[in-house]
Design brief:
CATH class of the largest domain: Alpha Beta
Number of strands: 15
Shape: globular
Helix content: 25-40%
Number of helices: 10
Radius of gyration: 20 Å
CATH superfamily of the largest domain: Medium-chain alcohol dehydrogenases, catalytic domain
Protein name: NADPH2:quinone reductase
InterPro entries: ADH-like_C, ADH-like_N, ER, GroES-like_sf, NAD(P)-bd_dom_sf, QOR-like, Quin_OxRdtase/zeta-crystal_CS
GO molecular function: mRNA 3'-UTR AU-rich region binding; NADPH binding; quinone reductase (NADPH) activity; zinc ion binding
CATH architecture of the largest domain: Alpha-Beta Complex
Distance between the termini: 19 Å
Largest sheet: 7 strands, mixed
Keywords: NADP, Oxidoreductase
GO cellular component, one term: cytosol
Length: about 325
């Protein structure tokens, strides 16, 4: 029997609901492996699960992303052996743990060039960027995009990758330090939302034309203004709710503002098939190998301090990527 240290949420609520405790892992089922985590990704979706915005049956262990080493394999496992370095980014939920049993269809092997910490910091966020810029809206060389929260974990990866693709990035940030960080990672124009009207600045930067696509993980606070940043037939990509859920809107508004497109994509749908997961993570690993993206791990928290990590994330006190260490 293997004893794991886990974070457990007994019922939805604040960061204080993240309790550090021990748990005994069950025997492996067919096509499962036991993974010892070396690094765990911290993502805003973990907050949504904890608060109940995205309901999960309680009690539960949060987390969709981690990297580590396979310690044991069950009958029927093909393609993985004990000692393999692996990572995952689409769940199932339960990554806030020192060890766990995992189905093999969600695992990918890590190349030697990608460390466990880099994988935990990049997998979910960079795979999200991969589908957002290659599939949700295929951004092309020479285009200009608006990316909200450009100094955040997803934003810094997007700025690097889009710059490598020859794309101009306009990024919103909160403060001078975050603006400098975003520019250091390839953001061409930064807009400080604490002192500037981002809609007016986007129109100014683009000579009144607007942008073909807006990537918005902020939600309620930026949604309406983002629509006004779009060129006719532009696409609004709403992929997060950091400031709360977007208010209901009449579809006719999209027509009034230029026959706009609106989508609310999720990695869980873009990578639900194994072939899609392997392809998207392959794009990430290639981008790392090519030097187009590198992790910016600015916060490391002990697993037992998950509550502190969540408070920092919700308080917009973090930059780049954050990880938990068992």
């Amino acid at each position: 029997m293997t004893t794991a240290q886990i974070i457990q949420v007994a019922a939805p609520g604040g960061a204080e609901t993240l309790a550090f405790t021990d748990s005994t892992l069950p025997a492996l089922k067919e096509n499962e492996v036991r993974v010892r985590h070396n690094a765990i990704g911290l993502n805003f979706i973990d907050v949504y699960h904890r608060t109940g915005l995205y309901p999960v049956p309680a009690p539960f262990t949060p987390g969709l992303e981690a990297a580590g080493v396979i310690e044991d394999v069950s009958a029927g496992v093909d393609g993985f052996v004990a000692g393999d370095r692996v990572a995952y980014c689409t769940g199932p939920i339960g990554a806030y743990s020192s060890h766990r049993n995992m189905p093999t269809d969600t695992l990918v092997k890590l190349p030697d060039a990608v460390s466990d910490e880099a994988a935990a910091a990049l997998m979910l966020k960079a795979t999200t960027v991969a589908f957002l810029i290659h599939e949700t809206f295929h951004v092309k060389h020479g285009q200009t995009v608006l990316w909200h929260a450009a100094a955040g974990g997803v934003g810094l990866i997007a700025c690097q990758w889009l710059k490598a693709k020859g794309v101009t990035v306009i990024g919103t940030v909160g403060g001078a330090d975050k603006a400098a960080l975003a520019r250091d990672h390839g953001c061409t124009h930064t807009i400080d939302y604490t002192s500037e009207n981002f809609t007016d600045r986007v129109r100014e930067i683009t000579g009144g034309a607007g942008v073909p696509v807006v990537y918005d993980s902020v939600g309620k606070a930026t949604f309406d203004g983002s629509l006004d940043c779009l060129a006719p037939r532009g696409m609004m990509v709403s992929f997060g709710n950091a400031t709360g859920a977007v208010d209901p809107m009449a579809p006719g508004i999209l027509g009034q503002k230029g026959s706009l497109f609106l989508t609310r994509p999720s990695l869980l749908h873009y990578a639900s098939a194994r072939d899609d997961l392997v392809r998207l993570t392959g794009l990430v690993f290639d981008a790392v190998a090519d030097g187009h993206i590198t992790p910016t791990i600015n916060q490391r928290f002990a697993l037992r301090d998950a509550g502190t990590a969540h408070r920092a994330l919700e308080g917009r006190e973090t930059t780049g990527q954050s990880i938990l260490l068992p």
